[in-house]
Amino acid sequence: MQSHDDHAHGIGHRVGYASPEEALKAPREEIVYVASLHTGTGVDEPDFLAVVDVNPDSDTYGQIIHKTYMPNKGDELHHFGWQVCSSACHTNLNRQYIVVPGFRSTNVHIIDVMTDPRHPEIAKVIPGEEIKRKTGLSAPHTVHCMPGEVVVISMLGDENGDTPGGFAVLDAKNFDVLGRWEARPGEIQFNYDFWYQPRKNTLISSEWAAPKTFQDGFNLQDVQEGKYGHSIHFWDLSEKRVVQSIDLGEEGSIPLEVRWLHNPDAETGFVGAALSSAIWRWYKEDGEWKAQKVIQVEPKDVEGWPFPVPGLITDLVVSMDDRFLYFSDWLHGDLRQYDISDPANPKLTGQVWLGGVLQPVYMNGRKLEGGPQMLQLSMDGRRLYVTNSLYSSWDNQFYPELKSWMLKIDCDPDGGMKLDENFYVDFGTARAHEMHLPGGDCTTEIFQ
């Protein structure tokens, strides 16, 4: 692997951005790719990748201008990522393909978005059965490109949907399934999201549960029986082994999305504990990784609920300049912005209400069903995009009348947020999940 000094001076073919400072100057996005699912909705159609027009000068602003349908039904498109990005900087590959797994089917779709960015085409489908056979894993979640021209995918279950999960590796050149990433499979029981920091030789992973536990809906008894995770794990990136795990306990139940600061020298980041509705910060001190709770969203009593309703923090994103942290409370219905200039002491600087179970929320006379869920932030930190589907069976359980949308929040660089009431994307019979920008974004780009 070449040094970050070589990287900074542009030696070799570079994909993406040399630094967060360079990424901040990226051109404004004109389209957004959105994973859109019919799985679990009762509509007998395939899932699709939506192309949404986000250029305010366009006649089709705020509309789906293209749908790339998957060849099979029942995939449940969820999270996706690039085959190469800023961390895979020295390569002859171009940023041509996005890797789009089916969370339920384990099929992995390779979609060409470079040839015609507004009309993506499927270039290859890796059957789920092949992935299960070659890795012993299922339920692909987070996709990250990594140095060495490989794509690594967190897998939440074994081939039968039980634990332990692990990580699958694809060749970024031809998308062959190369096997497992971790040196000693089985070191972790639960898996979910992951991020890595090359200069610190560290990868961090989080925990949800076995697919068999969550795929049919949420049962509080499963939490009491220890079937949901509450730990984060730190890996030696080069040796691909766990070096330290931190149990967050009851106050860190179901730690989902992890976001390291973008500064490649940073030794801190944040994880959102969904069920506990807490944000934890990890950091290094005296040679050891530590974690502290820095934000707590208190539960609320709601008529008809057998227990106080948690905020349910389901997604978070850090601005490219490491100034702001955003997260969504899917059940409460609020989206929050915190100043993290001092990561140990986040300060609330903005809050908007976009649905939820606490009270009805309307936009231009239209009720916002569901609550804010997936988030994506523009490189310059001015525009925050939001969708409202979490996972099909959980959608059906908590928001049985869910009508899916994508919204846009205008973000003040000095703090504060405002809903753009002229932007509302109607997904019709489908549900919108993760979003990515064509040139990379705040949840895909990692720097050497």
UniProtKB/TrEMBL annotation:
InterPro entries found in the cross-reference section: Se-bd (IPR008826), WD40/YVTN_repeat-like_dom_sf (IPR015943)
Enzyme Commission number(s): 1.8.3.4
Pathway per the UniProt entry: Organosulfur degradation
SUPFAM superfamilies named in the record: 3-carboxy-cis,cis-mucoante lactonizing enzyme (SSF75011)
Main enzyme class: oxidoreductase
A GO MF label: methanethiol oxidase activity
Similarity comment: Belongs to the selenium-binding protein family.
Protein name per UniProt: Methanethiol oxidase
